[in-house]
Specification:
The complex is a heterodimer of chains A (100) and B (379). Chain A is mainly β. Chain A has one helix at residues 4-17, and strands at residues 21-30, 43-50, 55-60, 73-80, 92-98. Chain A has a single domain, classed as Beta Barrel (OB fold (Dihydrolipoamide Acetyltransferase, E2P)). Helix content of chain A is 14%, strand content 39%. Chain B has a domain at 3-117 and 208-218: Peroxisomal Thiolase, Chain A, domain 1 (3-Layer(aba) Sandwich), CATH 3.40.47.10. Classes of the chains: A mainly beta (100), B alpha/beta (379).
Chain lengths: 100, 379
């Protein structure tokens, strides 16, 4: 269940994570997704170490299969996470794309 | 004060479309009471371990719900800790006896999962993870796949090593009448099964299951009672990204060290262990973090059969078939592990009996290692 209030409250957390670079520590390809993600599967989920030492788990987009490797450098971007529900608020979040 | 498991029982685990949660609970608790040779009226409180009844079934308030079903108007509590809900319910029951509040209590672990679509179950299970992991579209197979890849890279663990865990646990399950699966597997079959979250494949994953398990705990020793020597819990961050080191589950390490100290034993004293193999990599991590093998050495040892029934003198792991072979109705698992240990320590486990078993360990994990519960039982 999506809450517009919760989405609004989390916006500042998302803003703080955008445009950060880091490198992949580990990754997987989710082929059997949760219900809200069925139209996106299969998709990679990566664990990244950011340059400030923090770790983040997020989805990877705009990638080639050869980008799925430990040490691959990535940058965080804002993307739609899943479908809006009946309230119509679009849930945005952080994803990663390869840094070229 | 000494505490004893005086009665223990499980339902069959599996896809039980004809069975309701009420029916499963009644079966497990009344069989456990029969086993304890004590009437329902002797039970002073009920502890229920369950994770998903609210999210999947729309039913909360499980303490009163199951007390009603058992015909008992006693204090009753639901304890939730993701897939460690059963172990946590037992820990709370133990504490209630140690406090002197009660002398005899029942612990019920139960989950009904196959009434629902797999993607709905996957969404509900992700309630055990972090918000960040849910936004990433991660699943539990996905999170354990991330742990597996780190382990493989650091220690040279192979996909075939992981497959050997499923092969062993299906062999054990084939000897357990209550297990979900009775088919044995080969490494090749595991390797060829469909990919779920690379590098984990379908046969690396425990199934979606229905089932219930119950134990009766008492401060009074009975002839067939098995002593609970230690009950310990540790927690860690919900999300993998917030941990310093993901080559281990620190909560498993911390809970087990606490349990060994309370029971006055070391890992070398454990004859039989039921550990949380929700995925094959999870059993490898458990073997190392519980102290049975040095870091990076467990996978090869499991593949060589060192933890298989009939192995001689080393600890036997997951004689019930584990979560992989016996099934994983999440709230029931932690209690089922205790039922298996009680059978093993009483020497009534049939074809899967670990000969001469005197000390048993149960290891139950919630999420990707955010909760770990360890119990040690003695004959």
């Amino acid at each position: 269940m999506q809450s517009p209030v919760k989405i609004w409250r989390n916006q500042k957390n998302i803003a703080a994570l955008v445009g950060k670079t880091g490198a992949i520590i580990s990754w997987t390809i989710v082929r059997v997704p949760p219900g809200d993600f069925t139209d996106q599967a299969p998709y990679p989920v990566v664990l990244i170490e950011m340059e400030d030492g923090k770790h983040v788990t997020c989805q990877m987009v705009d990638y080639d299969v050869s980008d799925l490797s430990v040490g691959q450098r990535v940058i965080t971007i804002v993307r739609r996470v899943t479908h809006p529900d009946a309230d119509g608020v679009i849930p945005y979040g952080i994803k990663a794309k390869p840094l070229v | 004060m000494k505490l004893f498991v005086t009665g223990a029982a499980t339902t069959k685990f599996g896809e039980l479309w004809n069975a309701s949660p009420r029916g499963l609970a009644r079966h497990a608790v009344f069989e456990a009471l029969k086993d304890a040779e004590t009437p329902p009226s002797s039970v002073e409180a009920l502890f229920v371990g369950n994770m998903l009844s609210g999210m999947l079934g729309g039913q909360e308030h499980l303490g009163a719900f199951f007390a009603e079903e058992l015909g008992l108007s006693i204090p009753a509590f639901k304890v939730e800790g993701a897939c460690a809900s059963g172990g946590l319910a037992l820990h709370n029951a133990v504490n209630s006896l140690l406090s002197g509040q009660y002398k005899t209590v029942a612990v019920l672990g139960i989950e009904k999962m196959t009434d629902h679509k797999p993607e709905d179950v996957a969404t509900a299970l992700m309630g055990a993870g972090s918000e960040e992991e849910r936004s990433a579209g991660a699943t539990f197979p996905g999170l354990y796949a991330i742990l597996a890849r780190v382990h493989m890279r650091k220690f040279g663990t192979t996909e075939e090593d992981l497959a050997a865990v499923a092969v062993k646990n299906h062999l054990h399950a084939s000897l357990n009448p209550n297990a979900q699966f009775h088919n044995t597997l080969t490494v090749e079959q595991v390797m060829k099964s469909s990919r779920i979250a690379d590098p984990l494949k379908l046969l690396d994953c425990s199934p979606i299951s229905d089932g219930a398990a119950a134990v009766i705990l008492s401060t009074r020793k009975t002839q067939r009672g098995v002593e609970i020597s230690a009950s310990a819990v540790a927690t860690d961050t919900l999300g993998l990204a917030q941990r310093k080191d993901i080559t281990q589950l620190a909560a498993t390490r911390n809970a087990s060290r606490k349990a060994y100290a309370i029971a006055g034993v070391t890992e070398a004293d454990i004859d039989v262990a039921e550990v949380h193999d929700c995925f094959t990599i999870a059993e490898v991590l458990a073997m190392e973090d519980l102290g049975f093998f040095a870091k990076g050495k467990a996978a090869a040892a499991i593949a060589q059969g060192k933890t298989t029934v009939g192995n001689g003198k080393h600890v036997v792991v997951n004689p019930s078939g584990g979560l992989k072979g016996c099934g994983h109705p999440v709230g029931a698992t932690g209690v089922k592990q205790i039922v298996e240990l009680v059978d093993q320590l009483r020497g009534i486990a049939g074809k899967r009996q670990v000969s001469g078993a005197r000390v048993g360990l149960a290891h139950n994990v919630g999420g990707s290692g955010a909760t770990a519960v360890v119990h040690i039982l003695k004959k």
